[in-house]
Design brief:
The chain has 483 residues and is α+β, with helices and mostly antiparallel strands. The strands form three sheets. It has a four-stranded antiparallel β-sheet with strand order 1-2-4-3, with helices on both faces. Strands 5-6 form a two-stranded antiparallel ribbon. A two-stranded antiparallel ribbon has the order 7-8. 67% of the residues lie in helices and 7% in strands.
């Protein structure tokens, strides 16, 4: 018996060129990410016409299909199962099919070579960092929500016998997040994941308190995720060097030993100290930025975050958020950046009101708006504002207004932070924390949301829809959605 999710998966497969055209399948919080042999075989109009599809993102030989939170996690396994079942039915002895597949694969290789020549090192690095941290988001969200609930219970003095257990549950993942970062880093850079986790575990091991570097005793967790990231990258290069020079008969014994030993020593005597200094600098810079230039900094950060989301590079900020949470107990950057989502919601509402005769677009907005209110902006970006063009810019203006609002209060000494990353928008309220009490913190954050909604709505209503033809909302700037 087919479910709606299996029906969606079955509808997507032929529109992306069939099983022979799919090389890899993965997903993030909102997108089904498909690696393809030949990107030209994708039927974009057919995909956009599917009710469950909220938008498309093109990136050379990948196709990112925006399905929204929750839906993408259910559709992906259905798609993988369908892909496997369909692949089993292919006739491998069919010479014509095999030849076509080989030609398509060769074309994909040529395109990939062109992509490598054209891609900037910075963009590739940021995407690689994002790929390391994106799989950690479910753990960060779950533990962050529990931490927020526990903080509320502690402040209210309720269930004192339960709060120590909640503290342990919420803090366990954060205490060992360096190990997970090391594991994913080694996997991303082509090393053995378990060795990446092994060298990263040195950072959080309590015994490092007995190690002295430059006259300073190390502290467990010093350098945090940045130290773990650096250790795992170094470990991967050491492992690859060993694989080249160690005889095959000794590889299974010598390579892991040298990888852990050499990388561990460098981590203890150099990386932890350097990463610790860098982490402290990040915390100091974030505090200075918002306390000194808060309104301007909030305006700039709120305005630029939607373009980062559009490019899929916003996940590269996770190490910074995580570092601030480790140091200060909360990240002051996330509430400011969350204002971009508020501007997006305001812009979408203005489009909904102005284009009241465009039934298709209004249906898209109604389906994507709940996710937007909870801070998941991609359905609205790729389904509404970016295809229309100007509303994307006016949504950024709304984000700038909300960011400036929160930044202004930071200049007055009222800091607004989040104890975890992942949720945004209205969903961030349970995670709010600050230095002046929960009530004032929540009030400032709510004021920022209202400012973002209002400016995003007004800017879009009066300036964002001047030349839009209501009958063709998604086709006018289709190429922009591929950025």
């Amino acid at each position: 018996m087919r479910t709606p999710d299996s029906t969606t998966a079955a509808a997507i497969l032929p529109l992306v060129g069939g099983p022979a055209n799919v090389l890899t399948v993965a997903h993030c919080m909102t997108r089904l990410r498909l690696g393809l042999r030949d990107r030209s075989l994708v039927d974009e109009e057919g995909l956009r016409a599917l009710p469950a599809v909220l938008g498309l993102v093109k990136d050379d030989n990948t196709c990112q299909i925006v399905l929204g939170p929750g839906t993408v996690a259910r559709v992906t396994p259905e798609f993988e199962a369908l892909l496997t079942t369909t692949a089993d039915r292919l006739a491998p002895h069919d010479a014509e099919t095999t030849t076509a597949d080989l030609l398509a694969l060769r074309g994909a290789e040529l395109k990939a070579a062109r992509t490598r020549r054209n891609a900037t090192p910075l963009k590739l690095l940021l995407r690689r960092i994002a790929d390391i941290f994106v799989p950690l988001i479910p753990g960060l969200i779950g533990c962050g929500v529990i931490a927020g609930l526990n903080g509320l219970l502690v402040n209210l003095g309720v269930l004192p016998g339960l709060t120590p257990a909640l503290t342990a549950i919420a803090a366990g993942f954060m205490a060992l997040i360096a190990v997970f970062v090391g594991y994913n880093t080694a996997k991303e850079f082509g090393g053995t994941p378990i060795l990446g986790g092994a060298v990263a575990s040195v950072v959080v091991y309590a015994g490092v308190a007995k190690v002295t570097v430059l006259g300073v005793t190390l502290a467990p967790g010093q350098g945090g995720v940045l130290g773990a990231l650096a250790a795992a990258v170094l470990g991967t290069y050491v492992e690859k060097w060993c694989r080249r020079w160690v005889p095959p008969t000794l590889d299974v014994l010598v390579t892991p030993t040298l990888t852990v030993l050499l990388t561990g020593l460098v981590t203890l005597y150099a990386l932890m100290y350097a990463a610790g200094a860098l982490s402290s600098a990040i915390g100091t810079a974030a505090a200075w930025l918002l306390s000194t230039t808060g309104a301007f900094a909030g305006l700039v950060l709120g305005a630029l975050f939607l373009p980062l989301v559009m490019l899929g590079l916003h996940q590269a900020l996770i190490p910074i958020h995580t570092t601030l949470i480790e140091q200060q107990g909360y990240t002051v950057l996330l509430p400011v950046l969350a204002m971009a989502g508020a501007g997006q919601v305001g812009a979408a509402l203005a489009v909904y009101v102005r284009l009241r005769h465009d039934t298709s677009l209004r249906t898209t907005i109604r389906s994507a708006l709940p996710a937007g209110l909870l801070g998941v902006g991609e359905p609205l970006i790729y389904g509404v504002s970016l295809p229309l063009g100007r509303p994307f810019v006016t949504a950024c203006a709304g984000g700038a207004a909300g960011g400036a609002f929160i930044g202004f209060f930071s200049m007055l000494g009222d800091r607004v932070g989040s104890t975890a990353i992942g949720p945004s928008g209205l969903a961030l309220f349970p995670l709010l924390s600050g230095n002046r009490g929960l009530a004032l913190t929540a009030a400032i954050y709510a004021g920022g949301l209202l400012a973002g909604y209002a400016v995003g709505f007004a800017a879009t209503y009066f300036f964002g829809l001047g030349n839009v033809t209501p009958a063709r909302p998604a086709e006018q700037a289709a190429e922009q959605a591929a950025v």
